[in-house]
Amino acid sequence: MLDLLDIEGLYPLYNRVERYLEEFPEERKTLQIDGPYDEAFYQKLLDLSTEDDGTVAFALTKVQQYRVAMTAKDCSIMIALSPCLQDASSDQRPVVPSSRSRFAFSVSVLDLDLKPYESIPHQYKLDGKIVNYYSKTVRAKDNAVMSTRFKESEDCTLVLHKV
């Protein structure tokens, strides 16, 4: 689990940070909303406390953790395998031996740009649309099943067979 809050739990914290930034816009740089994403930034992310003390610092930490989690969930991992000869020495790339052959491999991680702070309201609205669509679909499906099973005007006969 990369983040402790879903978007519904995070959105009020995002709003707390937004209200603070509206009152103190010059703090945006100090709060590292737009970077730099350095060691100090990542050290703040290690705070895994779950008790909301009502501060902007707590809200900001949770918002930043969410952004990092969304980035990790959306990144791509590329693994390239290349067959290599049994006696070939592969000094440049690590080799994975298998029962019949050997493979040189490389691993790349793509799309590690931190998700934009400004995308959180969009994610909140999108999540709401998904939940509403799902609820309507399930409700409509349940209503259709119920209406075909139990029609009040339809007689029901129970037939018992001797076993």
From TrEMBL:
Catalytic activity of the protein? 1D-myo-inositol 1,3,4,5,6-pentakisphosphate + ATP = 1D-myo-inositol hexakisphosphate + ADP + H(+)
In the record's own words, the domains note is: The EXKPK motif is conserved in inositol-pentakisphosphate 2-kinases of both family 1 and 2.
Q: Name one GO biological process term.
A: inositol phosphate biosynthetic process
The UniProt keyword set, sorted, is: ATP-binding, Kinase, Nucleotide-binding, Transferase
- One Pfam family it belongs to: Ins_P5_2-kin
Q: Which gene encodes it?
A: IPPK
Species of the source: Pan paniscus (Pygmy chimpanzee)
Question: Does the record's keyword annotation contain Kinase?
Answer: yes
Identify the PANTHER family for this entry: INOSITOL POLYPHOSPHATE KINASE 1, INOSITOL-PENTAKISPHOSPHATE 2-KINASE
Q: Name one GO cellular component term.
A: nucleus
Describe its function.
Phosphorylates Ins(1,3,4,5,6)P5 at position 2 to form Ins(1,2,3,4,5,6)P6 (InsP6 or phytate).
Q: Does the keyword Nucleotide-binding apply?
A: yes
What enzyme class is recorded for this protein? Answer: transferase
| Annotated GO MF terms | ATP binding; inositol-1,3,4,5,6-pentakisphosphate 2-kinase activity
Q: What is this protein called?
A: Inositol-pentakisphosphate 2-kinase
Q: Look up the EC number in the record and give it.
A: 2.7.1.158
